[in-house]
């Protein structure tokens, strides 16, 4: 069972912390894919006989897994288009302190072939101020049993903020700003249809959902725009003087 599900995604990533797997055999003489009505006796129901392949289990050392983040930015009114692999950045914690500075040298030190920024899951959790073993704040969590975020799941929004580097033409930098969405849990059920015998396998996953949002203000110096602004300012001064 892969820890990341789905294996790739845009603007989000999900890592399993808890999972269980059930196998549902097709009823004799039935093909559930040909069923057209819930009244059909072959209609698939979760109450059908099932076999537990994997009871509720936790992924060991999920905090040590690594995540590579690639992103890029393009100016709306400018010709700037650049990817994070050629920019400097930093991972900033929820309280505003810098956890790690990111440069080409640091990327190459961890992996000479890295196309993006590599973090451990623990680094992201620490930056967001999250602890998987803390009691879950989700309304649906079993608080009487002390259910944790590792069991219920957790959602972390990571804002990627871009800005120009002062006095450096066409040079941008960025910051990762992770934050826990309080009260949220996250689960997803992976449904696998087995073509060999028409059975179903359900993987119930709870875990860490990372949601990425990009924003910032970038620009480039244009002499014509500066000249136009100066002329307009002088004209306004003249008008005000004569008024």
Overall radius of gyration: 26 Å
What class, by secondary structure content? alpha+beta
CATH architecture label = Sandwich
Query: How is the quaternary structure best described?
Result: single chain
What is the H-and-E element order? EEEEEEEHEHHEEEEH
Percent range of helical residues: 10-25%
State the distance separating the first and last CA atoms. 77 Å
**Number of structurally distinct domains:** 1
Spans of at least 5 consecutive residues with low confidence: none
CATH topology: atp-gated p2x4 ion channel fold
Largest sheet: 8 strands, mixed
Offer a quick outline of the entry.
Keywords: Ion channel, Ion transport, Ligand-gated ion channel, Membrane, Transmembrane, Transmembrane helix, Transport. It is built from four helices and twelve strands.
Question: How does this structure look, described?
Answer:
There is one protein chain. The radius of gyration is 26 Å and the shape is elongated. By secondary structure, it is of the alpha+beta class. Strand 9 and strand 10 (172-180) form a beta hairpin. The mean pLDDT is 86. 16% of the residues lie in helices and 38% in strands. The chain has one domain (12-242): atp-gated p2x4 ion channel fold (Sandwich).
């Amino acid at each position: 069972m892969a820890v990341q599900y789905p294996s790739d995604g845009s603007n989000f990533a999900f890592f399993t912390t808890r999972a269980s797997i059930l196998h549902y055999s097709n009823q004799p003489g039935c093909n559930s894919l040909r069923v057209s009505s819930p009244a059909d006796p072959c209609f698939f129901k979760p109450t059908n006989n099932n076999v537990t392949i994997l009871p509720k289990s936790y992924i060991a050392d999920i905090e040590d897994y690594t995540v590579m983040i690639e992103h890029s930015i393009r100016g709306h009114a400018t010709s700037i288009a650049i990817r994070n692999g050629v920019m400097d950045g930093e991972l900033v914690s929820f309280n505003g302190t810098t956890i790690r500075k990111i440069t080409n040298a640091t990327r190459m030190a961890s992996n000479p072939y890295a196309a993006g920024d590599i973090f451990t899951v623990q680094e992201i959790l620490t930056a967001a101020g999250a602890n998987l073993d803390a009691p879950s704040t989700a309304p649906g969590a079993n608080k009487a049993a002390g259910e944790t975020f590792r069991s219920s799941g957790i959602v972390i929004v990571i804002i990627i903020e871009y800005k120009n580097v002062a006095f450096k033409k066409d040079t941008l930098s960025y910051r990762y700003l992770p934050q826990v969405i309080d009260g949220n849990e996250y689960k997803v059920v992976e449904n696998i249809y087995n073509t060999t015998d028409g059975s179903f396998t359900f993987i119930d996953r709870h875990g860490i959902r990372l949601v990425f949002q990009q924003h910032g203000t970038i620009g480039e110096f244009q002499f014509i725009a500066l000249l136009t602004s100066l002329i307009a300012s002088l004209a306004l001064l003249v008008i005000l003087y004569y008024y």
